[in-house]
């Protein structure tokens, strides 16, 4: 079939919309049984997985990668002549195994699990492992291998938590609403299920993947954060407003009037570089970018180029984003 529609800049044109329908039909035919495929829109760039319906929506909204004319990552077979002209990716599978995806997440969060395994003929030096960190790894591994209920082959406990939390965030579901549906799902499942109890329990599990946050109390009138030198105070030193809400004297825990949720930047950047899946993308601006006179990304802007000329030693390091932020944090 002709694929000239990929080059059409008008994404509302009949030619372009018909081309998307042809691709969706092609994807369904070559990925039978798959719930998600690689999204080939310009934003996802064949690195993110979406449902086939969402891929179609992305292609209308963002446009397709113009250089991706042979759909080898979506099941199209390559002949010998054309394979040399296509950017290839190692170990690409047209059908996504959700269990493998969850295990990849765990390996990215705990790289020591793979680096400490000595292969035959290799003299690997074991990486020091913190006992608390290893205990967290074992818990996640147990949840990843534990069936949601006896005989369930589709979902493990960890897989269910990841999928449901992803949906909660994507569709902006409140904690109360989320807890309600968790209770309904738990009653629907067999009585001996291992389904998560509530949102708080799910958060505790995901914290082990490095996806947690710090809760910092704040003044009701936004004067200060009860942090560092103000951490032990019970009232704001500026407006004298109480740090905590008035509650029953029988209550053991105090409830702050206002709190800020802080996502620590340093560990998240470290995980981006520890992960085999995202480390290459973090170096893309240096190693894979097309350097011409066409502005496609922020890296093509004059401000970025001027910064590179001012600090050539810093710019020479493909991991400079990590270096810059770690220095600032340190």
From TrEMBL:
It holds the Pfam family Transpos_assoc. It comes from the Eukaryota. Residues 3-76 form the Transposase-associated domain. PANTHER family: OS08G0208400 PROTEIN (PTHR10775). This is Transposase-associated domain-containing protein. It comes from Prunus dulcis.
């Amino acid at each position: 079939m002709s694929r000239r529609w990929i080059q059409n800049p008008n994404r509302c044109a009949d030619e372009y919309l018909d081309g998307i329908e042809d691709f969706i039909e092609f994807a369904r035919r070559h990925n039978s049984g798959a719930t998600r495929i690689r999204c080939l829109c310009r934003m996802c760039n064949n690195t993110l997985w979406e449902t086939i319906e969402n891929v179609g929506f992305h292609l209308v909204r963002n446009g397709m990668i113009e250089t991706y004319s042979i759909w080898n990552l979506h099941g199209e077979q390559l002949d010998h002549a054309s394979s040399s002209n296509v950017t290839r990716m190692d170990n690409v599978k047209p059908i996504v195994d959700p269990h493998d995806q969850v295990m990849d997440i765990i390996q990215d969060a705990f790289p020591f699990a793979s680096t400490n395994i000595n292969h035959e003929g290799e003299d690997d030096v074991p990486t020091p492992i913190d006992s608390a960190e290893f205990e967290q790894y074992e818990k996640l591994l147990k949840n990843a291998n534990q069936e949601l209920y006896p005989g369930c082959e589709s979902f493990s406990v960890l897989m269910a938590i990841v999928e449901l939390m992803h949906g909660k965030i994507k569709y902006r579901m409140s904690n109360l609403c989320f807890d309600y549906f968790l209770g309904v799902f738990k009653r629907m499942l067999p009585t001996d299920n291992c389904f998560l109890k509530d949102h708080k329990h799910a958060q505790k599990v995901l914290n082990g993947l490095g996806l947690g946050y710090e809760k910092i109390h704040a003044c009701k009138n936004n004067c200060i954060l009860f942090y560092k030198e103000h951490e032990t105070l019970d009232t704001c030193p500026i407006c004298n407003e109480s740090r905590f809400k008035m509650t029953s004297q029988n209550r053991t825990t105090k409830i702050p009037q206002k709190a800020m949720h802080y996502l620590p930047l340093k560990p998240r950047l470290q995980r981006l570089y520890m992960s085999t899946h995202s480390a290459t993308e973090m170096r893309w601006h240096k190693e894979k970018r097309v350097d011409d006179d066409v502005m496609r990304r922020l890296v093509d802007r004059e401000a970025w180029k001027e910064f590179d000329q001012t600090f050539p030693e810093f710019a020479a390091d493909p991991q400079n984003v990590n270096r810059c932020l770690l220095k600032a944090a340190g």
